[in-house]
């Protein structure tokens, strides 16, 4: 059956309405999500939808071709298996028929042979009787003639008859006779007569045994010749008178045999002489009468013998024909049974692969029916999912899957509706008639990749998180080579090189040719016959002898077959070893990926050369190369064509910019032609890295064992795949070594045995992996706790655009938490306590790291988020309650039109908005009846809400069960939003305990995290902000004093005065070397540690132009100076040189170079986006806590010129701190109930 007949694909023309509807819904859904993600960016446009159409057609063809090729191979293999089984059945039937034919032939032959034997015996007896009659007549005649002389010779014969011949015999004569292996016929006749005389069976074997008897010569001497009967005499006489028994004839053959025959003659003569004493006359008359009767009888015997001979000749012809037919059947049967092929359990041997391949073929037939839906979702993922974070990608994919199946889904994002759906746990029955059928379960990884590729990624140590793998597949999709939009990668951590190295092979990027027709189809057996053995049987052999010889031949053949099988097995092993040693035909190498930088001055020629040669390119920092004409030309994707751009060229654009900065840097028109793919921070990757850090420190042997187990598992699975492919290839390829059925079946059985062993080994390794996972579970729970903190802090990136929860900072906090722990665990019972302490340390370090980055003024917000994460890990903060706290259930579109509780009037002390939110809160079971409780117990609620803290006292309602701390916080946010700050503080203290900033000093700059190629952007509070108390130059001064610098520029007298005036109190210049540029024109250059410095100033006509600043920047980068720019504003002349300089390679920048940018937080929007995105932000906010204010005052006093005694300084510092504290808090601090 052809593959086209067995695989039925859905008709694309008939499915156009369903496909169009599904595509429209997916496009609208992506547009809605993009509107919430970044509404200012044109990420979902009509051009995106056209790209969606093209990608769908391409992927639909690819999936169809993959299914067809795979099904073709499997179907060919199954056809070969069925053909092999049919051939085996035909061969077995042939053997059975030949056995039946042989049985009938044997019966016929046995019957004819029996007749022949009977007739032969009859004819022999007839001839024997004739011969006996002739001998008798001859004997009677001689007796009649010799009667007269018998008496005279009696005495003489008695003397010579026995003693004479006996004296001639020697013992050596017997040895010579016994030495014959195949004695002459006459010797056998002598020994047969001897055997008859001693009453033994005739034949050489019996005679040889008789001659070997001990004292045989003595037995001849004492032989009882007197007791011989007439019959013995006659038989002996007949034997001695037989042809060739004469003495001369015997002596010509063997002298000992002649001597033995002489002794026999002597015995005979003795007996004859003994009987001659009878009256001669009586004997003579008797002899004459007997002679007459015997002659008549002899004539009758001769007549009967002629009749028997005539019939035997015809029977002999029939027997010969039957024997020839029997031999022919035996030969055919022997050839058919050669190698015992008919007895092989071939069905059992081939049952497993047939079953597995049949199941796989049925699965492929099912995939044919879902190819349109699968291709649609895959193309939608490639086209639309790139800009979204991993969680939203999965949410969108699930929504599209439901839409494709015909379910009713909201197109836009609605976290509240999703959470409500999960809590309701209602089973949604899919429609009977889906819009488009898809695989179940649906997996993009299995559609866009394969198990072997996933295993290779594991071996290459690529991230194992599913969300990261999905991003890698979206990046590696071959559709980028044919799309109308180039991929734009938001890649701050250089993840693109991990996934693009190596690139997919060329075959995967172009339409593969159809499967080779008939490849491997039809397993052909070797029909050549084995050479026939020579027929050594005689035609007149008996059936018993023939059976015995047949058994002997079969035994010999079995031995030969076993030897042959051993030789063939050795040959198979040698061939397999040779195949392993022979170089395998290498697949074509993957295309070479060229990596260019946007800041490279040779970018234009490099891009043009790569496009002309059809080589893919990864362009990093692409925003720095937008001025390149060749790049602008290549960005016009629809206008590119050969020969300038050859097939195989693909432009991967990479940038470290975030999604929100794309509009400002690239512009909307350029973004319409780009497919954005966000490769930013991935929580699952960070979770694995954090687990690795913890295991390496806490339990390194577990980590090494886990890695070793993972490698062993990968090796075994790859071996399983190779064995399965080898088994399939054995049935597809027509190889000479597989032509013989015996060798082929041995190979099949051997391959299946190896495959079963590998699978068993995989199961064992999987059990070991589960055991290791159970051992890692306590440490993984610690990681989950840390990741909950990280996920809770992530929303701060939306509130503070320059703040970034980087994996490096999280891992550094993890290391600090580990270093603060005591790892001496003597008992296993101590592990839970140890890990609990590690959780606490990890929480403090992660939250403390965020506080150190954002500033002390953000401590309440950071603490509240951390406390909420701790509750979520303790399963005390359901998702719906978290959403009710922030942003509120009323923000959901599904709750906009919710009807309030009827019959309950709004209390006067509650506003309409709060009342509406209370009605929405009743969606949650703990808040059921809240509106009725607020209306019925207004005084109680007002008394509760007047308390100074949310922790004090139980809530008045609404139900009988007490509300949790988070639920009370939700009520306070809704009913008393003006008290939210204090409520969050009480909530944080109740969960976390000690304040996060108790161990933090004044604002610091994380110098150890700074890099020569990454500017430090210090964000000052806006002018007039109460926290703007300390300038960051003091901190930079301390850092410079600790860092060795070399400065070669002189310091002028005016600069010295300006410096001292800016620092105040005529303070001496510190011993550090750095350049300070001020755009305000008030304080331009500060340098210390040298006598001669050059003053560089900007912002006024009297100061140096921008070109001097650029020159100073380049000189500082080359010599490793520090450069500080304050009040930096957007300047088109300075933007591009500054961005190009900070984006250079580390090798071209001095490792001691640092660039400090000081700017007000409200002026960040005016700065170049390239500069802000490449900088490390530092939020320069001061704490409002009295303790921190006092510490700052002490540090300021220590910077003074004169040193005062402590007794005088401390009261002044206390007074200064209190006044500053009062000034910063303003009216709020005056209204506080503290003691002053």
UniProtKB/TrEMBL annotation:
Domain of life: Eukaryota
Start and end residues of each stretch annotated as Disordered: 510-603
One Pfam family in the UniProt entry: MT
Positions of the Dynein heavy chain coiled coil stalk domain: 158-400
Keyword Coiled coil attributed: yes
Gene Ontology biological process terms in this record: flagellated sperm motility
Chain segments annotated as coiled-coil in the UniProt record: 123-157
Name of the protein described by the UniProt record: Dynein heavy chain domain-containing protein 1
